[in-house]
Design goal:
Length: about 425
């Protein structure tokens, strides 16, 4: 009970007193010798508060918060806390109360830019002395990233914690690479653990904020470089987590499991999409030297991904036109091909040379037979118009993008295949692309 009172007292100091209705909280939130910063009163300077809370104190708060009851509501826990609402009214067990208070305190420290001394101090340094910000932010941002990861492990990736994670990363984009460093992806195997890990990482990459002008890349995180020069190393650390390596991804796409391969391809597409978002942002800013940095970033990203020839070997193993009466393999193969087409299109848009220099018969993306046929072993070869319309659109869109590249020519089998599609399809989009 004393721990609960102590933690709630710290929370009362950080949050403005106006959000609480009881007089005790208002009285506790106003202490002597406070320093007024912005709209809030801090008992000491934020820099000193940062020094007091970093280290073992923050680690112990993270450990304690992992034992708090799981949040199973559809509301925003941080917003409810700031507004004075409680989603755990009536907790009787003192241990649960202490763990809940520790978690509520971490909600403030990690996600509330107005009340957190960490985030307030970071913003202050960015405005006053960018070079000093590099040094001092490096002292607590890595620990904040580890604390955030510890909370996600303890509480799970449910809807409230997803909102909390998104709020943390969008409030402090500089935290993204430090949080990425805490992610783990071990030797991939076709099991639930690997697939859930790939989906978890892909979801984080998809929802994490893209690098933009708010991160002040050229001014803050490029020490020793010219003003407004993009740091490729920093950009890469904010796009690809260190645990996602070329070797692991290569093993994933070579797996015989369609579910594992589709999860890996979905992750690849998300990585390439984040790369494109970063480069588009840099192009809008029109900062001198961005073109060279963008090209360098393209190459660095591709060096972390499986080679294109390895990706193009997937259709031979997951033929979307092959089906049997006893299973749904064609549906699984279709999902693999949909994600593969998306990945190939991103690669062509980012680095056309990597595709132009490859000798590959792109007609392999189309069925061997124009009409359905049956084999002796019970296998049915579907016609192009028999597969899902989304797959038809993705395949033709990919072939269209590739056809616009220089030095890329299709075999003489492509023309009759496309003419057959024009005659057989009744889907307007498919007809237009063909």
């Amino acid at each position: 009970r004393y721990m609960v009172r102590f933690l709630s007292g710290i929370r009362d100091i950080l949050l403005p007193s106006s959000v609480y209705s009881d007089h005790a909280s208002k009285r506790n939130s106003r202490v002597k010798n406070t320093i007024h910063i912005g709209d809030h009163d801090f008992p000491i300077a934020p820099s000193l508060m940062v020094n007091l809370l970093t280290g073992e104190i923050l680690n112990n708060l993270a450990k304690l918060s992992r034992w708090a009851p799981t949040i199973d509501t559809n509301t925003d826990p941080v917003k409810d806390l700031i507004e004075g609402k409680s989603i755990f009214e009536g907790l009787i067990d003192p241990m649960e109360s202490a763990c809940t208070e520790a978690r509520r305190l971490l909600f403030i420290l990690l996600a509330d830019a107005k009340s957190s001394p960490f985030l307030h101090h970071l913003q202050h340094l960015k405005n006053i002395d960018p070079n000093k910000c590099i040094e001092q932010a490096g002292l607590f941002l890595p620990q904040l990233g580890m604390t955030l990861h510890s909370m996600m492990i303890g509480q799970g990736y449910n809807f409230p914690m997803r909102m909390f994670l998104n709020r943390c990363l969008n409030t402090t984009p500089e935290l993204v690479p430090h949080f990425f460093k805490t992610l783990q992806l071990k030797d991939p195997k076709p099991n639930y653990r690997t697939i859930s890990s790939l989906s978890f990482i892909e979801g984080i990459l998809r929802e994490a904020p893209a690098l933009n002008h708010r991160t002040h890349l050229g001014k803050i995180f490029s020490a020793g470089e010219a003003r407004d020069t993009i740091s490729t190393r920093w950009a890469l650390s904010s796009i690809i987590p260190p645990c996602v390596t070329k070797l692991i991804l290569a093993k994933v796409v070579q797996s015989p499991s369609a579910l594992l391969v589709s999860s890996g391809l979905k992750l690849l597409a998300t990585i390439l999409r984040r790369t494109r978002e970063c480069t588009l942002t840099w192009a809008v800013t029109s900062v001198p030297g961005n073109n060279g940095a963008c090209n360098e970033l393209f190459q660095e990203v591709l060096h972390h991904l499986p080679d294109v020839p390895l990706l193009l070997s997937i259709p031979s193993r997951f033929d979307p036109y092959k089906s049997t009466d006893c299973d749904a393999s064609s549906n699984a193969n279709a999902i693999v091909m949909i994600h593969l087409c998306e990945t190939i299109q991103f690669i062509v848009n980012l680095d056309p040379v990597s595709v132009m220099n490859i000798k590959f018969d792109w007609v392999k993306f189309l069925p061997i037979e124009s009409t359905p046929s049956s084999a002796i072993d019970g296998t049915t070869m579907l016609g192009f118009h028999n597969v899902e319309p989304l797959l038809q659109h993705r395949i033709l869109q990919t072939l269209l993008v590739v056809s616009k590249l220089c030095n890329v020519s299709f075999s003489n089998k492509m023309l009759p295949s496309v003419l057959t599609l024009l005659v057989s399809t009744d889907i307007l989009d498919v007809y237009s692309i063909a």
